[in-house]
Amino acid sequence: MDDVTAVLDREFPARRVAETTPARRGNTKETTLVRFADGGGVVVQFSADAEAFRTELALARAVRERTAVPTPRVLADGSLGGRPYAVVELVDGADLHERFSRVSSATRRRLSRGFGRSLAALHESFVFEDYGAVRVEDGRTGGEGDEDAGAALRADGTESWPSWFDAHARAGVDALPTAFDGVRDELLAALDDADVSGSPTPRLYPWDLRPGNAVFDGGDVAAVLDWGGPLSAAAGLAAAKVEHLVADWYVADGAPLRVAFREGYRSVRPYPEVPSVYRLAAVVRSAVDSHGVVTRPRYPELEGKKAVAFHRERMCEWLSAASPSDG
């Protein structure tokens, strides 16, 4: 008996499985889509990182409880053979990563406004005491036993905002492969010159809120799927990255999507201050994945030198805009 079958027998002993389809999602999870013979389905996920997975599930539950951001329900979680697993509601629809560049321009603008509203709702609902990685508090589960799953989430940083941001941005530069050596010194110089003084309110920075992690029902986003790797940071830094992943990632002219994204955000709360150095850091931290592999924008996806060129162009755009007086 394989592990997916074992989980299904444990959690749904009375239901017969009609079909299972592996669908790897992310670098640390094994994902299988399951259809039942009597209709409906679930997603079974196994993770290689128990602590990170516990945080991701707690945040997913809290987002569903606190906001209207469409988030699949976590139906069950546990451990099998030492591997943590979760069973999550299966939401029908298409992968928005494949559709976003192909839908009409009006639909793209509407979807972009929706992403803006979603980020603003998260900023309204999740405020922390510190900056840094968000984790489930020791001794808490962030699961069904907690009245509010979000109450178990804490940011583990103790540094000031300028110190945390500088370390965060420089870690991104350090992770860039040699293909970016031609721009590395300029990036570091921009960070040296940056003025990010102050103590902005630490708010949720969802690491991967983007079309590529959404289900599209033909008209709107039906589900946001990935809540892994959350941070607590200035709202402007989160806005810079999500706006980049929505407005710049898929189409050549992102200006209309940028406007729509900000309109959506402002329909919930005022748009935060976003210095150019925040946008620069957002591009840098989006250019490679957790294994240091260059990420692939657009769809069909750019690869190799074309992907590097995309990221370098965005970096140069914000290098030219960043200045000591900009922050």
Automatic annotation (TrEMBL):
Occurrences of domain Aminoglycoside phosphotransferase (ranges): 21-269
Superkingdom of origin: Archaea
InterPro entries cross-referenced by the UniProt entry: AGP_Transferase, Aminoglycoside_PTrfase, Kinase-like_dom_sf
SUPFAM superfamilies: Protein kinase-like (PK-like)
Protein name according to UniProt: Phosphotransferase
